[in-house]
Design a protein that fits this description.
single chain; alpha/beta; Rossmann fold; five-stranded parallel beta sheet; 5 helices; 43% helix; 21% strand; globular
Length: 127
């Protein structure tokens, strides 16, 4: 599903392989002034980033086929100004973030579950 950005609204792409989480995040973000789109896997997120050109990218780290850190790196290659916030419910993602930093990519990350107000505050701090 493609969205057409609404003027004066921050565009955000959400990527999570758990559809309920992705769809819930899109709903919350849309209700709080964001123009949100979702992707349910990393490869779709990369393709959608090309078409949607989001200003923000919220991505789960642990996904099948390609992890969220690699997706974020590819999205940044396409959209260097895009702000990235990674999130995960698993503690073992620290190694992936360290490897990304060794490649000169620094991404902010939060642990899920996260309260919507805290997530919104983190996203707004990236703008």
């Amino acid at each position: 599903m493609t969205s057409v950005p609404i003027p004066n609204r921050q565009t955000i792409l959400v990527a999570d392989d758990e559809r309920v989480i992705a769809d819930t995040l899109k709903l919350i973000l849309s209700q709080h002034g964001f123009d949100a789109a979702v992707a349910y896997d990393g490869n779709s997120a990369i393709e959608m980033a090309r078409r949607f050109s989001p200003q923000l990218f919220l991505c789960d780290v642990i996904m099948p086929d390609i992890n969220g850190v690699e997706v974020a790196i590819q999205v940044r290659a396409i959209l260097p100004e895009c702000r990235v916030l990674l999130f995960s419910g698993q503690a073992d993602v620290l190694d992936l973030l360290v490897l990304a930093r060794l490649r000169d990519y620094k991404f902010d990350a939060v642990v899920k579950p996260i309260h919507p107000s805290e997530l919104l505050a983190r996203l707004r701090s990236l703008i």
